[in-house]
């Protein structure tokens, strides 16, 4: 009888121990999930906050519809770093979201695999390079044409050489700023879309 009681007591202790271990494991997993959720919400909040900062600075810098008439000076290029920050924040939002779905950041494919991180890096590089090249070429070409036209008009009035020089300087500087602003922003947006689509498809292969 005593031996039976001892066996029952041991069985109860084993069951209690397993229950405690299971509870600890569940709480540990829950805290990890809560941590990933807070990381996702934090990045999302920062992305939204930075977006409103971009809108505010867009108005302050008087960029308007980003037409040639809206270009005032090199200081307007200050909007570009804000778009870079937004790119990184949106990328982090999706990384945290995938970590929530897949059950951990360690489940996300690394940068040397064709996953989300790889897609975002490629999208950023391609977007910046294409935006920079197209922006520089289109801006300089447009500015050159504009400068020649202004220079010729002033030249016909009697200041040919001065008109050409002034027109070229104004045209090239304005065209350069316009080209960089427009195409770098388009490049970053296009790179983000490409990176997210490519990366998400690769992440769930």
**Given the helix and strand composition, which structural class is it?**
mainly alpha
CA distance, first residue to last residue? 61 Å
Strand segment tally: 0
Shape: elongated
* Rounded mean pLDDT score: 77
User: Low-confidence segments, ≥5 residues, pLDDT <50?
Assistant: none
- Rg, Cα atoms, Å: 29 Å
**Largest β sheet strand count, sense and barrel closure:** none
Keywords:
205 residues, elongated, single chain, mainly alpha
Describe the structure in your own words.
Helices cover 83% and strands 0% of the residues. It is mainly alpha-helical and 205 residues long. The longest helix has 88 residues, at 116-203. The protein is elongated and about 100 Å long.
Q: What is the element layout, followed by pairings?
A:
Elements: H1 2-60, H2 79-102, H3 116-203
Describe the structure concisely.
This protein has 205 residues and is mainly alpha-helical. The chain has three helices and no strands. The chain is elongated and about 100 Å long.
